[in-house]
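Subject line: Sequence and fold of a protein, written as structure tokens
Body of memo: The sequence and its backbone structure tokens, given next.
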Amino acid sequence: MRTVWIAGALAALCAGCATVEHAGPNQTALRLFVQGVLYETDGRMEDALAFYRRAASNDAASTYLTLKVGTVALQEKRLDEASQAFGRVLASESDNDDALAGMGLVCLYRQKLAEAAQYMERALACAPDRVAIRVMLADVYMSQGSYAAALPHYERLVQEVPANPLFRFNYGLALEATGRSEEAQAQIREAIARAPRFARGYLSLGSILEKSGRTKEAREAYEKAMEVNPGDPMAYLLSAQTYLRERNYQKAREILQSALARGINQPDIHHLLGAIASDEGSYETALVHFRNALASGESDRLWFIIGVTYDKLKQRAEMEQAMRKALELNPDNATVLNYLGYSYLVERKNIEEAYQMIVRAVKMEPDNGAYLDSLGWAYYLKGNLREARRYLERAAALEKDAEIFEHLGYLYAALGDYTKAVLWWAKSLELKPKDEVAQELRKTIRLLRK
């Protein structure tokens, strides 16, 4: 229920006492409230809140004034004060939908989504026709990933406000998330029909169509998104990726370069252009794009990719420098720790540092076969064949990989078990021919024949 406190507020003010000091409690509260409204209208929220507090203190029985304090405190992100105000209202009116919704918003700001949903469900039970509360509740469920719970609320919103494209769009997203793809497409198409320049609608429709294997229609949706919002990089990226999956690098590059020509200097555009160049073996060109992406901000992921590219160019010093940049930004990046650590092992340098890096990576991802292989190889180079065997065999159990099998061949040769060494090298060559391994295999077979 809602409490009406200020019916005829302006008339009461005009008929009231000349000064606050000579007014009764309710008249004083009224004047303080009106002054708060004036400050709020001027955007002076701190002053407005101060007067609303004074008004509520002068009329403690008024849930309206207490709600006003809570609402403005919430707007100003004073969550403790807002929570206390809404709590006072609920102590006297447990079915006050405004206070329940307010408490729900406080929980939402605090990222307590389950509690937010509970308060909003209670608010909606008290006032089932309040669209704003239903919208908030549905959005909370979507944020939680509770798509099935969100569905009936979006369905009702679409029925009650059929002309609202955003409600239809969100309904479509909830339908897609619950596996009802055809219905999702229908709702999003209807949203677009009601808002033809709704770029996000085209992007989501394209994504749904792509998942359904309707690539041509997906591309048309992405092209429409580019048309209605030519400055949004996402449409170019999604469209280009449809061609990349078909390894049509030329078309993907054209789309991404058209984005750059329109002034969309976004790091993901450069990143994807760099990935295309790298896949084509044009590593110098790839580096140019990756470094252009850096201009918009550093990240450990980007420095890692730059390091890998330098590695492909056999520029080891530059690779190491890039990897260390990545670790400066994120010392716990397991991928970088393993890559740089294993690179040191390959070069037979900094073995102890490499070992420590790889140990950290394995602690973060104990079931990563590549990391276990690196650790096993580190133990091999350190002369600890027992631990090397332990980790290399675990790696082989997790991943069917030529390099892991190659390492096991060297390990068993070092242990004097040449039969197993031949077996593992043969398995390695089945997956990936390598002259060095083939030579070791032939040499060991000759040894066994003696």
About this structure: The radius of gyration is 33 Å. The CA atoms of residues 21 and 429 lie 95 Å apart.
